[in-house]
Specification:
The chain is an alpha/beta fold. It is built from 15 helices and 13 strands. Helices cover 40% and strands 16% of the residues. Helix 9 packs parallel to helix 12 and helix 13 runs parallel beside helix 14.
Length: 361
């Protein structure tokens, strides 16, 4: 098959590329930065959000287009026909975050936030969970069926290890520098579902080229669940083995935790929900018995991360607020550029109320 993968360079996408190449497909992957050639895959440098670039590559015609991009809903509405006309199967990456709180395991027909939320201010935004749900609706409203919606939830692997809403740069980095992990106490009791990115990639690969899945949607997760408290304990156990001592943990209430969060809606409308999934529908296509136990796989891959290292640039504001709460300090050399250094010093030492007044003046 001739397959185009838009932005397939993350924890799921990179593994999907491996799966598709192994299966002998003719694969083209778009990436915003140049990437070295790899056996069986051709990387095309360009921004798949740029309309001209997108038109040029889609007009080549594809057996399948796999879309990992995060679209603005209005732009997606304008481009949707172009996607569907370019391919036999358009695979749209949605998210398990579209769903509302549920005491039962989430199925494909569970209530979505877009449909049941009463928060007018939240609904007035195009926040990630709402945008994905709206774009699902747009696909269904086309009257066409050459699409498949897939909903991964939280994945790990390839240097991605989340703790609640925190990426490794905002919790693991601190620990390795001798500072405290700052986390949310009420979130500790919430159920979550973590899945190895390689397993999600295998699920997506099994759906590609399958005519029976056209016009259908699938939740792509493991069956096993953990509380965020259990996830934290797993990380702490591995860190203790690695460091020779157990890292310090500061637990905050939701409001205090959200002060340093990059996405408050992600806290309130996802991580503070119980997230257990029923992946029975995708089990009709793939053997879930071959999906890794996330507890075992997460521990193994986290150990590899501790041996390998590698972190993206720190968020100076978030780091400062966590250091303030924990009565700790980062070295200014940890921040790239003068602007980040000044931002860290300001948020670490000046009251937030005063900063807001200064920014408003």
């Amino acid at each position: 098959m001739k397959i185009l993968a838009l932005g397939a360079t993350g924890a799921i996408g990179s593994r999907l590329v491996e799966e598709l190449v192994h299966s002998g497909h003719d694969l083209v992957v778009t990436s915003r930065r140049a990437r070295p050639a790899a056996p069986g895959v051709h990387y095309v440098q360009g921004n798949a959000r740029d309309s001209d670039f997108l038109k040029g590559i889609l007009r080549q015609g594809w057996d399948a287009v796999i879309d990992f991009m995060v679209h603005d809903t209005l732009v997606f509405q304008e481009q949707l026909d172009m996607f569907l006309d370019a391919t036999v199967q358009y695979v749209y990456l949605s998210s398990g975050r579209v769903f509302a709180q549920s005491d039962e395991p989430l199925t494909e027909r569970s209530d979505r936030l877009l449909d049941v939320s009463k928060d007018a201010a939240f609904l007035a935004t195009d926040e990630y969970a709402l945008a994905k749900a709206r774009q699902e609706n747009l696909l269904r409203d086309t009257g066409q069926s050459n699409w498949t919606i897939v909903r991964p939830y939280i994945t790990f692997g390839d240097a991605r290890f989340q703790l609640g809403t925190l990426e490794k740069e905002t919790w693991l980095y601190r620990t390795l520098k001798g500072r405290s992990i700052v986390f949310c106490e009420p979130m500790m009791k919430k159920w979550t579902t973590l899945t190895d990115g390689a397993d999600v990639a295998r699920m997506i690969a099994a759906l590609i080229g399958n005519s029976a899945v056209l016009g259908e949607d699938f939740n792509l997760t493991a069956r096993q669940t953990m509380t965020w408290g259990e996830v934290l304990e797993l990380y702490l156990d591995e860190l203790e083995r690695h460091l020779g001592q157990r890292p310090r943990v500061l637990l905050q209430d939701v409001e205090s935790f959200c002060q340093a969060a990059n996405s408050v809606p992600q806290v309130r409308y996802d991580r503070m929900f119980d997230r257990r999934f029923d992946p029975s529908k995708v089990e009709t296509v793939v053997d879930l018995n071959k999906v890794c136990d996330p507890r075992i796989a997460l521990a193994e891959q986290f150990r590899a991360q501790l041996s390998g290292g590698g972190f993206l640039a720190l968020n100076s504001r978030g780091e400062a607020l966590r250091d303030r709460a924990a009565h700790e300090h980062a070295a200014l050399s940890e921040f790239q550029g003068l602007k980040r250094k000044i931002s860290y010093l300001a948020y670490r030492n000046i009251p937030l109320g005063l900063i807001k007044k200064l920014r408003a003046s």
